[in-house]
Amino acid sequence: MSEDPENVEKMEGDSAKPDRMFTLKKWNAVAMWSWDVECDTCAICRVQVMDACLRCQAESKRDFYGKQDCVVVWGECNHSFHYCCMSLWVKQNNRCPLCQQEWSIQRMGK
Amino acid sequence: MLKEKGQVKFEEKWPYMRPVVLKLLKQEPVSQPEWQELFYSVHLVCLWDEKGPAKIRDHLHEDIVQFIKQAQVRVLAQREEQALLKAYIAEWRKFFTQCNYLPTPFRQLESALQGKSASGTASVQASGTKKNQHDDSIVRKLMLDSWNESIFSDIKHRLQDSAMKLVQAERNGEAFDSQLVIGVRESYVNLCSNTEDKMQIYRENFEAAYIQSTETFYRLKAPEQLTINGVQAYMKYADNKLREEEARAQRYLEAGSNGVIQCCVKVLVGNALSAILAECAPLIRGGETDRLHLMFRLLERVPDGVLPMLRELESHITSAGLADMVAAADIITQDSEKYVERLLELFRKFSGLVKDAFSDDPRFLTARDKAFKTVVNDTTVFRLELGTGKNSGTKVVAPESKCPELLANYCDMLLRRTPLSKRLTSEEIELRLRDVLLVLKYVANKDVFMRYHKAHLTRRLILDASADSEKEEDMVEWLREVGMPADYVNKLARMFQDIKVSEDLNGQFRASTARHDAINIKILNAGAWARGSERVTVSLPLELEDYIPEIEEFYKKKHSGRKLQWYHHMSNGTITFANSVGRFDLDVTTFQMAVLFAWNQRPLERISYENLRLATELPDAELRRTLWSLVAFPKLKRQLLLFQPTASAPKDFMEHTVFWINQDFALVKNGKLQKRGKINLIGRLQLSTERSQLEDNQSIVQLRILRTQEAIIKILKMRKRISNGALQAELVDILKNMFLPSKKMIKEQLEWLIEHKYMKRDDDDINTFIYMA
Ligand SMILES: [Zn+2]
Ligand SMILES: [Zn+2]
Ligand SMILES: [Zn+2]
C-alpha cells in the first residue's frame, strides 16, 4: 500500500527570506502523563493507578474514562493509592495497608 | 291423560313407527308430523314398556338388515368390478347419509338401554366421549355394524382393488369420480369395530394397499424416467410427482396418513440418491441456483439427505475462495483495499448462492460460514509470523493469516484522510466499514486486528488525520456491537475522551502566552495510550528543546502529582526549507527534524552517518529508517538528502556514508519544477518504531498466554473439576472474541498451571482436572 505524499500544493503567504536553511513553522509535541508513583498498582483494589479504581469503573461504565476525578493520594509514608480506595480504607483502619504507619495525607493528585 | 304403567305397549306403537323407519332407510320423504310422531312414540315406549327399548332395538335391527340385504342384492348384481364399485358407493352414500338421521328419534334408547344392554353399547358409551353424538349412538352403531357384516366384509377386497385401480388410472392421466375412492375409504374408517383404534382397519387395509400400489407404480416409473430423461429432468419429475402425490393423499387418505409420502420419497429420491448427488458439485460450480433449490427440496425429504450437499458447498466455497486468493496474490498481498474487496466479492457471491439456492437455510449458512472462516484464516497467500521472542527460547508459533492486519489497514484507509476516503461519500464509507466488520466476524484471531486497529487509531488521533471524527466514534460502537472485548473497546473510547481533554489543555496553553504560536501540545494519559517500552530517545534541535521547560512549567501549574514523559517519536511538525530553487514547507516527524536541523549550522557540508548519530542520539535502527525516508521518499523525483556511497536499503548505510542537502531540491508537478510547495514526508514512519513492532508481535503472544491461563483458572474455579474435552470447549468459547487458542498452547498452559499447583489431574482419570485453591 502506498501512502501518497500529501498532495503537492501551493504555499500561501510567502514571508521574507529566512536566514536559515530550515526554520520551524509548527511543532506538535506529544507527551504522556502518569501519576508520579513508586508502584503503579493500587494495593487496595489491585487496579493500575492510571486507570480508575474498581468502584469508579463499576459505577459509571459509560464515562469513567477520560474523567480525571479518580485521583491518586500519597501518604506521609510515600505510599500511594486511589483516593477513592483510601478514603474507604481509613474508615476501617487508619493505617497504611502497605507499611502499617498511621495514615496521613501528604498530597493529592490533580 | 297419562295412562297407567304398562298401558302403552311396544306392540301397539311399532306398527306406526315402522313405516316411517322404512321410509327413512330408503331415503323417501318423511313429513314433519311423521317425524315428530316417531320421537314421541319412542318416548312413550321407553316410558311405559319395560321391555320396549330392547324390542325397538331388535326390530330396528331386523329392518336395517332387511334393507341392507336388498342393497346387497343390488350391489352384487354387478359382475364387473368398476360397476360393482359404482353400485356399492351409490348405496353406501345413501346409507351413510341416513346414518346421520335415523338415529336421532331413537336417542332416548341410549339411556333406556344403558347398562341393560348386553355387549357393545356400554363400552361404546364409556369410550366414546362427547366428540360426536352420532358416533356413539346405539342405532348408528347398529346400522354400521350391520352394513359391515352384510355387505362390506364380503366385498371389501374387491372394492379396494377397484379403488386402487382408479387411483392408478388417475396417475396415468385418466379422470374419474374421486368420490368412488373416497367412499371406500369412508367405509373402512366408519365400519371399524375396534373402538380403541378406529383407524386400524383403514390403516391395515386401505392405506397399506394404497401405499403398496403407489410404490409399485413408481418403482417401475422412476428408473425409467431417470434413464430416458437424465438426472436434471428426473429431479423435476420427482419434485412434481411428490407434490402431486401429496395432493392426492390429501384427497384419498385420512389426515395424518404420512406413510405414502415417505414411501414416495424413498422410491423417487432415496433410490436415485447417488445419481442426484453426483449433480451437486457441478451445479454449485455453475451457480445454478434454481436447480440447486430443486435438489435441496428433494434431498431435504430424505433423512440426512442435505449433509452431502453441505459438504459440497463448504468445500466448493473453500477451494474457490482460496483459488481466487492465490490467483490474485500479487495484487492483494500489497493492497489491503483490493484484498478486502476481493473477499467481500467472494462473500457476496456465495451468500447470494445460499440465499437463492437454499433460502438461507441455517444449515447452509453454517456451511458457508465454515468455508469463509477457512478462507479468511488461510495462510497460503500470506502469513503473519508471530514470534515469542528470545525469552521463550525455541518455541515456534504457527504462522497466522494476515487478514486481520489487512482489515485494520483498510479501516485506516477509510477513516484517515486518504485519496480513498476523499473519493467516497459518508454513506459509502459506512457501508465499507460494515463490510469490514462482516469479514472480521470470520477472523479467528481478532486480537491481531485489535492491535493494528488501535495503532492506526493512535496515529490518526496524534496526527489529526481522521477524515471524520464522528465516524471514528461510530466505529468504536460498531466494534462493541459485533462483540469485540469490552475492555478493548473501552480503551479505544477512552482515547477519544483523552484527546478531547488534551485539546482543551492545548487551548489553555496557547492562550497563556502569545509566544507559542508555533507550538501545539498533546499531553495524553499514559494508561490509555502507551505501552511502556515504546519510547525512543532523541537529542532535540535547540529550536525545539527551548520549549520543553516552558511546557512542563505550564503543566505543573495545572496538575500535581504527575510526571511527564516526552514521546518524540510521536511528535511531528512543519518546517520551511529554503534553497537556491525556492522555499518549501515540509511536514516531518521530529526525528526527521532532528536529522535535518543538523545542517542548519553547516548548510553545504557533507555529514557522515556517524556524526549524524552523535548529533541526534537516535538509536541505530531509527536513524537508518529516518535517513532512508529522506533519501528515498516514494514518489519524489528529487530527494531532499543525497548520499554516498550508494545503498539499496537502510541497512546498507555505513559509518562513513556521507549525506548532504540537495541544493537542487524542488517539487515537480506535471513535469514542471515548482518553486513553492508543501509536502508531507511523514508517510508511515510515525508511531511504529522498529523495536515496538517486534515487541508488539511478542506481546500478542504473551497476552494470549496470559488470557488462556486466566480463562482456565476462571473455568476451574467455577466447575471445581472438569474433563479435558469440556474444558477445551469452554475455553474456546471464552476466548473466541479475541483469538483461537491452539491445542498446543492450551496443553502448555495446562501443564504450567499444574506445575505451579493451580490445579491437578485427577488421580483416577488423567483427562480430568481439579481446581486447587
Ligand atoms: Zn484502588
Ligand atoms: Zn475511584
Ligand atoms: Zn505506607
UniProtKB/TrEMBL annotation, chain A:
SUPFAM superfamilies: RING/U-box (SSF57850). PANTHER family: RING BOX (PTHR11210). GO terms for biological process: intracellular signal transduction; proteasome-mediated ubiquitin-dependent protein catabolic process. It comes from the Eukaryota. InterPro entries: RING-box_E3_Ubiquitin_Ligase, Znf_RING, Znf_RING/FYVE/PHD, Znf_RING_H2. Residues 53-100 form the RING-type domain. Belongs to the RING-box family. It catalyses: S-[NEDD8-protein]-yl-[E2 NEDD8-conjugating enzyme]-L-cysteine + [cullin]-L-lysine = [E2 NEDD8-conjugating enzyme]-L-cysteine + N(6)-[NEDD8-protein]-yl-[cullin]-L-lysine; S-ubiquitinyl-[E2 ubiquitin-conjugating enzyme]-L-cysteine + [acceptor protein]-L-lysine = [E2 ubiquitin-conjugating enzyme]-L-cysteine + N(6)-ubiquitinyl-[acceptor protein]-L-lysine. Its EC number is 2.3.2.27, 2.3.2.32. This is RING-box protein 2. It holds the Pfam family zf-rbx1. Catalytic component of multiple cullin-5-RING E3 ubiquitin-protein ligase complexes (ECS complexes, also named CRL5 complexes) composed of CUL5, Elongin BC (ELOB and ELOC), RNF7/RBX2 and a variable SOCS box domain-containing protein as substrate-specific recognition component. Also interacts (with lower preference) with CUL1, CUL2, CUL3, CUL4A and CUL4B; additional evidence is however required to confirm this result in vivo. Interacts with UBE2F. Interacts with CSNK2B, the interaction is not affected by phosphorylation by CK2. It is found in: Cytoplasm; Nucleus.
From TrEMBL, chain B:
Residues 402-631 form the Cullin family profile domain. Coiled coil: none annotated. GO terms for cellular component: cullin-RING ubiquitin ligase complex; nucleus. One of its GO terms (biological process) is ubiquitin-dependent protein catabolic process. Pathway: Protein modification; protein ubiquitination. Belongs to the cullin family. PANTHER family: CULLIN. This is Cullin-5. It comes from Aquatica leii.
